[in-house]
Amino acid sequence: MKGYPLACFNKPWMENGGYELFVCNGYAGVVGARKKSDRSQTVFVRDPDIARNLNLQAARAECTGGKVAVTEEGGLYDFRCSSKELTTKTKARFQTASKADWAKFEAAFRQ
Predict the structure, then answer these.
(1) Cβ–Cβ under 8 Å, residues 92 and 55
(2) Which pLDDT score is estimated for 89?
């Protein structure tokens, strides 16, 4: 699976154009973005494998003292914890951005 450390998404590296942009691994470029107006604080990433990997990392971090189970149905992944119920925010914190949105995030990064 492709991915970045969950720590890269703790604090935005910069804000521009109504977006909070996350940078990781030597400042090579934007790795994720969040729309400042989004109350759910969903972080958008470029690739679905990266989103799945980050959601799994978030589920493991929240599931202290238990095991995380992953099920896939029709391309949708569900994360469950054996010791407690995971919050909805953890289950869907990272999502794949559309190509148009990703182009906006990269343009905001270059400004």
Answers:
(1) yes
(2) 64
